[in-house]
Amino acid sequence: MVSRVVLLGVLFGVLIPVDMVPVKNSTDVHEGKLRLKRKYSGELFEEDELMDRDEMTAMDQILEVNSRLRAPRGLSFREGDIAYSYVRSAINCPGNACLWPKSIDGFVYVPYLLSPVYDDMDRITIETGMQEISSGTCIKFIPRTHEASFLDIQPRYGCWSFLGQTGGSQTLSLQTPGCMWSGIAAHEFMHALGFVHEQSRSDRDHYVTIVWKNILPEQIHNFRKQATNNLNSPYDYSSVMHYGRYAFSEDGGPTIIPKPDPYIPIGQRDGPSPLDLHKINVLYSCGVN
């Protein structure tokens, strides 16, 4: 009898702490504990802890920097960091008009100018973002010499890019130090190659739930689906182009929940995922002259 009591006591002592451990990546608000709030209307703030920046996705950081951004005259922004002076569809460019041209040697050369304002570490960060794309695709970023169409990479206010090739000098803004993550650079380069954010895909409702009630009312337009060509590629929760779970949250609650597994991490900051590189290769027919 005594041994049974002891055994029950041990089991009780083990089970209670386990039951009290919060589930990692849980999308529920834990009652009785203040959570870190992520608001992108103005600035990030905390209630009882500092934000762990190692957990931020590239898009989290972009939205934090761009929350203080006033769009340059004549430009507007959608989805947080895509600049436009007129509306154009996402990956679906009419006749692939927004794609960078492919050379006869099978490579796609994207000329660029890098502002002299950047210091050596900035240049390394930006060029790392380029290399992360070039190493797995037929895209090659080359310093501009005489090319008419090129990326003009400048430390403007915020992190943003136009979508695809627009022709002529094309500004791509990477503010320093706020945008100086190689994953952010790769994110903006993918916009310049013609890609929108992953959760804007036309088929996204099969893979994520948008929690409309948690989105800042003035930011709801950033969650519209686009008429995208999804390139027969799987949905990629780990794409560097994916919004974070709390993007444009009004009160700290999640705005995007994966399904069927709500706990799967979404977005990241390390650079293009294998599927990101695959989609670039498909869009630009890499390996096919």
Automatic annotation (TrEMBL):
Positions that bind Zn(2+): H187, H191, H197
Signal sequence annotation: 1-20
Keyword annotations of the record: Disulfide bond, Hydrolase, Metal-binding, Metalloprotease, Protease, Signal, Zinc
Uppermost EC category: hydrolase
Gene3D superfamilies listed in its UniProt record: Collagenase (Catalytic Domain)
CDD domains: ZnMc_hatching_enzyme
Location of the active site: E188
Pfam families the UniProt entry points to: Astacin (PF01400)
Cofactor: Zn(2+)
Domain of life: Eukaryota
Keyword Acyltransferase part of the UniProt annotation: no
Record-level Gene Ontology MF annotations: metalloendopeptidase activity; zinc ion binding
Coiled coil recorded as keyword: no
Entry note: cofactor: Binds 1 zinc ion per subunit.
Example of a GO biological process term: proteolysis
PROSITE patterns recorded: ASTACIN
Domain Peptidase M12A residue range list: 89-287
This enzyme's EC code(s): 3.4.24.-
PANTHER family xref list: DISCOIDIN, CUB, EGF, LAMININ , AND ZINC METALLOPROTEASE DOMAIN CONTAINING, METALLOENDOPEPTIDASE
Name of the protein in question: Metalloendopeptidase
Organism: Poecilia formosa (Amazon molly)
